[in-house]
Amino acid sequence: MKQTIVFCVWLLLGAGMAHAQDFVTRGKIEYEIKRNVKRMMAENDEPSNSFSMAMPEFDVVYRELIFSWNRWIYQPGRAPSTASRFVNENVAYIDLDKKERIAKLQFLDNYFVFEDSLLPIKWKIENETRKIAGWECRKAVGRVQDSIYVVAFYCPEIIPQGGPEFFSGLPGMILGLAIPRHYTTWFATRVEIANIDESKIVPPAVKKSKQYTKKDLAEILLKQYKEAGWWPDVTLEKVIVDMEGYTF
Fold first, then answer.
1. Which of 147, 144, 150, 171 is nearest to 160 (CA)?
2. Cα 42 from Cα 34, distance rounded (Å)
3. What is the Cα–Cα distance from 235 to 219, expressed in whole angstroms?
4. Among 74, 139, 204, 210, which residue's beta carbon has the most beta carbons within 10 A?
5. What is the pTM of this model?
């Protein structure tokens, strides 16, 4: 009888240990980003011509997220199979413990590095589930700046509360994301949990460039927009909202 009890205890402990090992705290995720270019052009009232008519409906690029607990870096991934109008070297670094994000973003013809607090998102978790890249994910809907509606699918088994771009704050890693307003989706194509190079998880830098606050950079861009005459009714507040965009 005593041996039977001991055996059952070991079975329970073993099951608990096996379950605990299913949770992931470090790894690398590849995201496929798809934009409906023709819908975006129509939204911006861009005229149709032979060039635009010949363009594929979707523009596809890849980015990768390397994470270790509460730090991760989101950066360019493998080259797309076809030419993309959205390829850039933008990088986002997130540190949840310090509640900060440091980004290298391209504005006009220059790259800038700026530091800011985490992007506030109001999330609501729903019951719908979906399998993405072999991982079971749960649906959540959120709002950014009270006007941008997003749909996310996060994986509770991947512990860090991160995701593509500047999105975070769900109880698990976001493997799927959609922003209907931008006709854009992000979906993980693979998740690697071995041989992760954590030395790459460092804040981005630009040669011969200082680090700006968001307000400093917005003031520089405001001046450039006015000089170029591309945005007639531009204001500092509008530039700051525009900067809250994404790294894609």
1. 171
2. 17
3. 9
4. 74
5. 0.83
Q: Which residues contact 217 (CB under 8 A, 6 or more apart)?
A: 107, 112, 114, 243
Partner residues linked to 150 by β-bridges = 142
The torsion region of residue 45 among left (phi > 0), alpha (psi -120 to 50) and beta comes to left
For residue 34, CA distances in Å to 115, 116, 134, 187 come to 27, 27, 20, 9
Cα(213)–Cα(225) distance, rounded to whole angstroms?
18
Q: Which residues contact 152 (CB under 8 A, 6 or more apart)?
A: 123, 139, 140, 141, 142, 163, 167, 170, 174, 176, 177, 178
| Residue linked to tokens 């530091």 | 115
* Average pLDDT for 34-50: 72
- Spatial CA neighbour of 186 closest among 28, 37, 41, 30: 30
pLDDT category of residue 201 using cuts at 50, 70 and 90 = very high
